[in-house]
């Protein structure tokens, strides 16, 4: 993470004529204008890239990494993820599913997906069906959930 500072104005940080600090100096903490994230997927610091240079899947991985890191330090009781795996390749969907499985004893994870990888580690499955212009939610088996996502991938 990179802290972004505002541009220092002329005269900031200078001392007054008495040799004391200028009372108009803006403290460093108040000059922060945001946080930027630079990442490397190779471990090489020379290969650092800004978020706007990343693909959708890479941005998703960075966001999930940040969420999981915060969860380790200051956990929430539950997380609601809506299609977090949509932009990820199969290997990364599996890695995310494994991470959620490893963290499930510390928090509850509710996810929506149209991909099979997140279903493999799940314990409970719900199907949402649209009938007569109304959504209906019902418990389904793992097999039914897998059939649904496989059918969606085949016909979608």
From TrEMBL:
Transmembrane segments: none annotated. Pfam families: SMC_N. Residues 51-135 form the RecF/RecN/SMC N-terminal domain. InterPro entries: P-loop_NTPase, RecF/RecN/SMC_N. Residues 1-24 are annotated as: Disordered. PANTHER family: STRUCTURAL MAINTENANCE OF CHROMOSOMES PROTEIN 3. This is RecF/RecN/SMC N-terminal domain-containing protein. It comes from Schistosoma mattheei.
